[in-house]
């Protein structure tokens, strides 16, 4: 890993930190906040290597010395990583960390610690860490990583330099999910709904979502090919699957993506469509619909989303929507 590689994901963060390294103006504590998959821990590790590396050139650690190698392998005696023990980070873990820091550094006078999911500290653990942050050692650097900074004590946040990590782009997140083992079709659908990796994975691990996608594709096809049986289709497979308000909301979001794909196909921007496994059907609908009609259909779905938030009856909402979509 290098700063150049990390800069591809987080250019602003990398520029700020590398400048701080070169000018020797590192803070004693950092709070890295951002969605899962944005590179918070990788940046913390890279900065820790730069902090310890004795062969560093400007801001770049050498990656070859014993300090760099042991930090990469997680075996450096003066670098400590704390992660939740079960559902939370407990006070015993923070006390153990403080005890370790009471000893002189085994390799140098420097020490570093990384706390993953810092928002999951118990109240007692957070208060204990607060005292630690208030009296940092001269050669101590701390990294607190979180996806939920609002769940942390204000007093802890105020003692850290807070850096916000930009979310991954849709293409980056989709690639990350595919590397994890999810299909391209499902990954692209999930990231079209959220740019949060954790939320995307929750959707992809839910069989309900997989079936919801199939049902929406079926409804999109029925609206064009068999409009006379759309109301029957709602009773057959829509209402039994989309039972709750939140589920209907996801269904409407997927239906909106369908019409957006039709519109993109009309604009000959097929590389941007989400449902790339349905290109033939999308092409047929794009050919037989005007752009103005598809735009109107998208507006109808958006209006249904507005009415959904106004607590309209779910079945009536969908029945009225499909009739309006047919009218175009």
TrEMBL record:
Span of domain DNA polymerase III delta subunit C-terminal: 211-326
Catalytic activity, EC: 2.7.7.7
InterPro entries attached to this UniProt entry: DNA_pol_HolB (IPR004622), DNA_pol_III_delta_C (IPR015199), DNA_Rep/Repair_Clamp_Loader (IPR050238), P-loop_NTPase (IPR027417)
Top-level taxonomic group: Bacteria
Pfam families with a match to the protein in the record: DNA_pol3_delta2, DNApol3-delta_C
Keyword vocabulary terms for this entry: DNA replication, DNA-directed DNA polymerase, Nucleotidyltransferase, Transferase
GO terms of molecular function: DNA-directed DNA polymerase activity
Catalyzed reactions per annotation: DNA(n) + a 2'-deoxyribonucleoside 5'-triphosphate = DNA(n+1) + diphosphate
Protein name (Swiss-Prot/TrEMBL): DNA polymerase III subunit delta'
Organism of origin: Pseudalkalibacillus berkeleyi
Organism phylogeny: Bacteria, Bacillati, Bacillota, Bacilli, Bacillales
Gene responsible for this protein: holB
């Amino acid at each position: 890993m290098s700063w150049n590689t990390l800069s591809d994901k987080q250019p602003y963060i990398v520029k700020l930190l590398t400048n701080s390294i070169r000018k020797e103006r590192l803070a004693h504590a950092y709070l890295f906040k951002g969605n899962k998959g944005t590179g918070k821990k990788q940046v913390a590790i890279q900065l820790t290597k730069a902090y310890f590396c004795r062969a560093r050139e400007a801001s770049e650690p050498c990656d070859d010395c014993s300090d760099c190698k042991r930090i990469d392998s997680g075996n450096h005696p003066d670098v400590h990583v704390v992660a939740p023990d079960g559902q939370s980070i407990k006070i015993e873990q923070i006390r153990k960390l403080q005890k370790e820091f009471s000893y002189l550094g085994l390799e140098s006078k420097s020490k570093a610690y990384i706390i993953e999911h810092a928002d999951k500290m118990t109240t007692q653990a957070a208060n204990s860490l607060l005292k630690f942050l208030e009296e940092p050692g001269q050669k101590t650097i701390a990294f607190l990583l979180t996806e939920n900074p609002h769940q942390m004590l204000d007093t802890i946040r105020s003692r850290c330099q807070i850096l916000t990590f930009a979310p991954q782009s849709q293409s980056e997140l989709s690639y990350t999910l595919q590397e994890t083992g999810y299909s391209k079709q499902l990954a692209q659908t999930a990231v079209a709904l959220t740019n949060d990796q954790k939320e995307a994975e929750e959707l992809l691990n839910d069989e309900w979502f997989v079936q919801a996608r199939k049902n929406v594709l079926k409804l999109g096809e029925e609206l064009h090919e068999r409009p006379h049986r759309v109301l029957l289709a709602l009773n057959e497979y829509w209402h039994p699957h989309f039972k709750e308000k939140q589920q209907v909301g996801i269904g409407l979001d997927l239906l909106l993506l369908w019409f957006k794909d039709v519109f993109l196909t009309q604009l000959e921007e097929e590389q941007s469509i989400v449902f790339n496994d349905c290109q033939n059907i999308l092409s047929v609908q794009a050919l037989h619909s005007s752009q103005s009609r598809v735009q109107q259909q998208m507006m109808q779905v958006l209006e249904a989303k507005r009415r959904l938030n106004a607590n309209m009856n779910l079945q009536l909402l969908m029945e009225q929507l499909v009739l309006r979509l047919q009218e175009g």
